[in-house]
Write a structure and sequence with these properties.
single chain, about 120 residues, mainly beta, 7-stranded mixed β-sheet, 11 strands
């Protein structure tokens, strides 16, 4: 069982930066891949980025590649999403999720563990 809690969201101007931590509790956190997904009003939840349990592999959606960086500190049971050069279209509720690598890359359905989400709003 893994519990996930996101934080760090807020209001930022276009071009600005935010860092979202996802703090996990539960055993064997390093055995789980962790991903970030986002959901804008009226839209489906979409994949943003994922990182393997060891942190050695990462994967990004094309829309955020080069602007967002995912990392993890297994000693602190925390995964981070560093978001730079933010755009108004990045506005959404951001959720972290934990499961096997292949399930995270398969989309938001059937993922075992989710956080409650944190709101990110980017003004133009």
């Amino acid at each position: 069982q893994v519990q996930l809690v996101e934080s760090g969201g807020g209001l930022v101007q276009a071009g600005g930066s935010l860092r979202l931590p996802c703090a996990a509790s539960g055993r064997s956190f390093s055995t789980y891949a962790v991903g970030w997904f986002r959901q804008a009003p009226g839209k489906e939840r979409e994949f943003v980025a994922a990182i393997s349990g060891s942190g050695g592999d990462t994967y990004y959606a094309e829309s955020v590649k080069g602007r967002f960086t995912i990392s993890r500190d297994n000693g602190k049971n925390t995964v981070y999403l560093q978001m730079n050069s933010l755009k108004p279209e990045d506005t959404a509720v951001y959720h972290c999720a934990a499961d096997r690598w292949i399930k995270l890359l398969g989309g938001p359905s059937n993922i075992a563990y989710w956080g409650q989400g944190t709101q990110v709003t980017v003004s133009s």
